Amino acid sequence: DMAQARVRFPDRAAIVLDFGTATTFNVLAPDGTFLGGCILPGLGSFASLLPRSAERLRHLRYDPEEAVGAPILGNSTLGGLLAATRAGYVGAVQRVVREQ
Questions:
Q1: 17-48, pLDDT tens digit by residue?
Q2: Of 23, 27, 32, 99, which has fewest CB within 10 angstroms of its CB?
Q3: pLDDT tens, position by position, 40-77
């Protein structure tokens, strides 16, 4: 949490991430001032977006955690969804951190 970041990294800027239903980013200045943040869907929410909105994919059920180690290219519909989940979610997290 942000209080722990201040204790562990005093006088340093920090980005505090919290992974859950949502993935939150809180950016702190070196003096501990909150500079702003970002909220993304959590991995499970992110993984359910396409199957929920695409009629032909609604029957697919999978554990979003499978996306963490999925290959970047899938060789089936499910494999493609896992690859996209990995690329999209991990890419979004990396971009937010990089741009801070």
A1: 999 999 999 999 999 899 999 999 998 888 88
A2: 99
A3: 999 888 888 777 777 777 787 777 788 888 888 989 88
Q: Tokens 């989940």 map to which residue? A: 85
Task: Output the furthest CA–CA distance in the chain (Å, rounded).
Answer: 52
11-17: long-range pairs with CB below 8 Å, 24+: 15/97, 15/100, 17/93, 17/97
Does residue 90 register a pLDDT over 80?
A: yes
Angle 79-94-2 (CA atoms, 0-180°, nearest 5)?
125
36: left (phi over 0), alpha (psi -120 to 50) or beta: left
Question: From CA 23, how far away is CA 88, in angstroms rounded?
Answer: 13
CB 17 within 8 A of CB 25: yes
